[in-house]
Every structure is written in structure tokens, then in C-alpha cells.
Amino acid sequence: MTIRVLVADDQELLRSAVTMIVQSQDDMKVVGQAVNGLQAVQLSAATSPDVVVMDVRMPDLDGVEATRRIVAAGPTPRILILTTFDLDEHAFAALQAGASGFLLKDAPGETIVGAIRTVAAGDAVISPSTTRRLLDHVAGRLAPTPTNAGALQSLTDREREVFGRLAAGASNTEIAQQLFLSETTVKTHVGHILSKLQLRDRVQAVVFAYESGVVRPGG
Question: According to the model, what pLDDT value does residue 74 have?
Fold first, then answer.
């Protein structure tokens, strides 16, 4: 299966570099390049990519609002945010808007293509330690919302146990070891959790956990 990728960045050099890296992969194809957020939204609708590699700061329409509009249009594509520094609050806003993860712009090429594959699969958090650093940085300003608290009541006791470990960045293998379950059972629980909480993927579960107070800054 070929992963269709849309690259959106207002810097021509970076946009061209990411495009070249993606095109060098046998299982990937660049289906479009956008110079701003508005064009990213338009090209996403026109080309139906699997993944959008999106700069968080762009003219006309920034990556946060572009992400929000693309996510609102349907279950795909997945959004991978590129940012200059790891404590960028715009990156957190993009995660809240529905992005599936973020990377620093100076990430090695193999990290970028690996992240694209991970996001396309929809089954892992991108750079969990970096994501947790960002969330710890901004989460002190988040107040648990009644909507989130109500949604958590739909989880079974076992699902809440799995959710707590998932939110802490644990992999399915680690959760299985911690709770003495099979990986297949953990995977089933994770699927039920994402479905009940209406979340797109694991990174959205981490964001939800911070917003609902399940995970505290530094916890």
C-alpha cells in the first residue's frame, strides 16, 4: 500500500526537502505541496492524502486552523505537525485540533518517514517523551471539562486502567506486562476506549487525558 502524502510549509527549502525524502521511499508518494494553510485545506480535499505533513506556522491560515478544518472534513487524512521547537504552544493547539503528533523540523529524514508511517497506521503516539514534555508545559492551564468527565464514565474499570497507562505513554506491550494481559486483549481495550471517547488515535487519548485531569503535569 502506498501512503499518499501532502506537504504543507511556507518555506520552500524545507518543503522541497521533505518532499524529496518522502519521494525516495518505495511505499510513499507526494500528492501535493501547499505554501500556506488555506492551500493545504484545499489540496487535502482535492487529493485525498493519507497523511498531511503540516508546518504549524504559516501565512493566510496557520497549521492549527488548517488542521481543525481538515479533521472536521472526515476521518482521514492524519496530520503530522512540524514545529521549530518542542515547547511550541501552537503545536499543542494543533494536537487539540486533531493532529496525530508532531516532530521538530530538524528531525532526521528516517525519523520523518517513520513518523509518517506511524501516523498513517494510526496506532502509536509520535515522539511520546517530547509530546509529554509539551503537554506538561501547557497542561497547568487546562481545567477538566464536564464533557470529558462524563465521557470517562462510559469506560469499564479495566478500560480505565488501560486508559491511564496509555495516557502515560505506555505501549500495548508495556500495558500488557503491567496488567498481566495479552497484547491482543490490550489492543481490543484500546480500540473500545478510542471508540467510546470518540478519539482518532492514541495521541488524542493523551491530550484527552490531560484535559480531563487523568494525567497531571509531571505525572
Answer: 82
Mean pLDDT, the chain cut into blocks of 10 residues (219 residues total): 95 95 96 96 96 92 94 88 76 84 87 90 60 65 59 90 85 91 94 90 81 68
Of the candidates 83, 105, 137, which is a domain's last residue? 137
Of the chain, the end-to-end C-alpha distance in Å amounts to 39
Q: Does some domain include residue 218?
A: no
Percent of the chain with pLDDT over 70: 84
Q: How many CB atoms lie within 10 A of CB 34?
A: 26
* 112 and 32 together in one domain: yes
Same domain, yes or no: 126 and 64: yes
pLDDT tens-digit series, residues 152-189: 888 999 999 999 888 877 888 889 999 999 999 999 99
**Residue-level pLDDT at 127:** 54
In this structure, how many other beta carbons lie within 10 angstroms of the beta carbon of residue 92? 25
DSSP for 89-137, written as a single string: HHHHHHHHHT--EEEETT--HHHHHHHHHHHHHT-S-SSHHHHHHHHHH
DSSP 141: G
Greatest pairwise CA separation for the chain in angstroms: 51
* Residue range(s) defining the domain that contains residue 27: 3-137
Q: Which residue bears the cell 505525572? A: 219
Q: What are the CA-CA distances from residue 134 to residues 41, 108, 170 (Å)?
A: 26, 20, 17
Residues 187, 204, single domain; the answer is: yes
In a domain, 23, yes or no: yes
Q: Please check whether residue 41 is in contact with residue 64, taking contact to mean a CB–CB distance below 8 angstroms.
A: no
